[in-house]
């Protein structure tokens, strides 16, 4: 199963996680794809209910472009295009050269620690 981990991290914790991932990559170890946000508000601003619905739809309906996706969801093209653009920038959605949208992950794991690691 292909998954991405999304974390809510303080700036200091994000730097530590980046350093750890960098060291793993330099050592040739596999690293899990990750995204980090500074707050729950930032996370929910980037991944809204509509965007999550869009991701699920793309994952279950292969071969759609933005226009077809908007029609399939019964949403305005401009709004869907904006959501697709944001999700592509986050790496949660991919757009092939022919315009077809692909959801590269089967699962999104959200991690929100309540204490900084020692």
TrEMBL record:
<dbReference type="InterPro" id="IPR036390">
    <property type="entry name" value="WH_DNA-bd_sf"/>
</dbReference>
<dbReference type="Pfam" id="PF25212">
    <property type="entry name" value="HVO_A0114"/>
</dbReference>
<protein>
    <submittedName>
        <fullName>Uncharacterized protein</fullName>
    </submittedName>
</protein>
<dbReference type="InterPro" id="IPR036388">
    <property type="entry name" value="WH-like_DNA-bd_sf"/>
</dbReference>
């Amino acid at each position: 199963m292909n998954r991405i981990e999304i974390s809510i991290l303080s700036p200091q914790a994000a730097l530590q996680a980046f350093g750890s991932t960098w060291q793993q990559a330099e050592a040739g170890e596999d690293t899990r794809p990750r995204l980090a946000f500074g707050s729950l508000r930032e996370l929910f601003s980037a991944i809204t209910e509509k965007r999550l619905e869009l991701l699920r739809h793309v994952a279950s309906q292969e071969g759609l472009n933005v226009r077809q996706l908007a029609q399939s969801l019964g949403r305005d093209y401009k709004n869907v295009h904006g959501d697709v653009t944001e999700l592509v920038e986050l790496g949660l959605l991919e757009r092939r050269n022919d315009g077809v949208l692909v959801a590269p992950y089967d699962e999104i794991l959200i991690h929100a620690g309540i204490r900084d690691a020692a």
